[in-house]
Amino acid sequence: MFDKLFQAQQKAQEIKSRLDNISVSAEAEGGKVRVVATANKEIKEIVISDELFAEGDKEQIEDLLLVALNKALAQAENVSQTEMQAATQDMFGGLGGLGNLFNK
């Protein structure tokens, strides 16, 4: 049983490492603001177009940043959930007779 728990912990670490290497990106206002994040929800890059800076509307830039950041984080969450669901299915499928442990 402890072996299965150790394997689950190792699998969780593998997933975290894999999520660190998956990038998601999102844009706002037709690409004037672009955000790149990892699937672990770490922001890696923010690109703001020169055109948007030239307009000089601080409030617009802030609003567009919020939109792009939230989109990127939502994508990261979707990827993370998908990876975790796949891992959970693998783990529970691999528990063998452990599911009957409490039915005896």
UniProtKB/TrEMBL annotation:
Listed InterPro entries: YbaB-like_sf, YbaB/EbfC
Chief location bin: cytoplasm
A Gene Ontology cellular-component term: cytosol
Keyword Cell membrane: no
Pfam families: YbaB_DNA_bd
UniProt GO MF annotations: DNA binding
Keywords assigned by UniProt, alphabetized: Cytoplasm, DNA-binding
Localization in the cell: Cytoplasm, Nucleoid
Coiled-coil blocks: none
SUPFAM superfamilies in the cross-refs: YbaB-like
Subunit annotation: Homodimer.
Function recorded in the entry: Binds to DNA and alters its conformation. May be involved in regulation of gene expression, nucleoid organization and DNA protection.
Family listed: Belongs to the YbaB/EbfC family.
Name of the featured protein: Nucleoid-associated protein CLV99_2396
Organism: Sphingobacterium yanglingense
